[in-house]
Amino acid sequence: MKKQGLYKTLYKSTIILFSIFIVVIILFNSLLSYNNFLNTQESIKENIINTKKTILKNEIDFFLSDFEVSKDKQKEMIKEMIKQRVNVAFDIAQNLYNTQKDNSNIQNIIIESLRKLKFNDIGDQYIFMTKLDGEILLLNTLENLEGKNLLGLKNPVNKKI
Q: What are the residue ranges spanned by the domains of the chain?
């Protein structure tokens, strides 16, 4: 009888140990699966963030390239407008000269006629005139500099302007 009680105890102990072993294996496997899940989740988050960063970078690059093209077009338009305005001023000066070239005061007549010529559609713009030697003949915004030679003018850091 003692042997049977011993076998029963041994049998029950083996079953309990085996059950505990199975539970431990299941818990360990669950822990590994959960850890794998967390790693996969983090990897997916990183991939989503990197994809969104790439999309955002591409959109910004597209916007910047479009902006550069627009900026270049606008520069060309402004250059053309300035060219047309210089041509208008030249035509006025040439017409005045051709009609009044015998007048000894022709230079002053041309300067005063161009002084009134202003363009306000893209900021305050005006015509200015200088001689090749650097003397200012017409400068609407700083009339006190007219008649002065600014060829050697330097900025505060002693660099020629």
A: 38-145
Alpha-carbon span 156 to 159, nearest angstrom: 7
Which DSSP string corresponds to 87-154? HHHHHHHHHHHHHHTT-TTHHHHHHHHHHT-EE-BTBSEE-EEE-TTSBEEEEGGGGGGTTSB-TT-B
Q: What's residue 79's pLDDT?
A: 86
Sign of the CA dihedral running 87, 88, 91, 92:
negative
pLDDT tens readout for residues 24-60: 999 999 999 999 999 999 999 999 999 999 999 999 9
* Closest CA relative to residue 92, chosen from 71, 75, 117, 55: 117
Q: What is the pTM of this model?
A: 0.52
Report whether 109 contacts 100 (CB < 8 A): yes
Single-letter residue type at 144: N
CA distance 7 to 44: 54
